Structure prediction request, 250 residues.
Amino acid sequence: MNSKEKHIAIKAENITKVFGDFTAVDHISFEVEKGEIFGFLGANGAGKTTAMRMFCGLSVPTSGTATVAGFDVYKETEKIKKNIGYMSQKFSLYGNLTVAENLNFFGGVYGIPRKELKAKCNELLQKLNLEDEKNKLVGELPLGWKQKLAFSVAVFHNPQIVFLDEPTGGVDPVTRRQFWKLIYEASERGITVFVTTHYMDEAEYCDRVSIMVDGKIAALDTPSNLKKQFSSQTMDEVFYELARGAKPSE
Prediction:
């Protein structure tokens, strides 16, 4: 393994997922570096969620090879799960438990020692300004607070990689900006962020983006380079060009 390989968080080579006669993910290849914020974009049905499930160890690829946090997606799925965090648009918290109970529960699931857990919980509540709401049911919190809490829980155990599936869906622009501040802080701590979003302006916040069209990666580069390649002012325009079949220029 060379020095560059040691800094690769996710590596996929010709990963494919077939359901009967339908190819959901079609020979995709890419690498994500440690600490990178990697945007995985595409319209509904483009194959984003199917691909993410394979990288999280929840679905076995039909063919191709991939490693996540250095572990094989075929043979080491349990090791992958122990080294990642995950958050979906539905925020993955228990609405019938209080904020404090959720933190204690997930802290236990992630194996955080009891001596550390209390201090980590207090630190997180203070950071999110949720100290006065710690005994409130999560189901009673505003959506934006739920999303920020869910993300914080997903990185509570300091995983190597966190997978975020449409994490800011349905929240207001101010809350979205606050959420992305949390993402940047996680990245600065060395956590790799793999995020899907349908908000093209959020693609601008990523170090690099991959755009899926019909199960294939149609383009992969930094947002600024993609805009240059398509002579576009925004990522919305880039996405439109790719959707209509345009190819990136050199």
Summary: The CA atoms of residues 46 and 204 lie 20 Å apart. The chain has one domain: 5-243. The radius of gyration is 19 Å. Residues 1-5 have pLDDT under 50 and may be disordered.
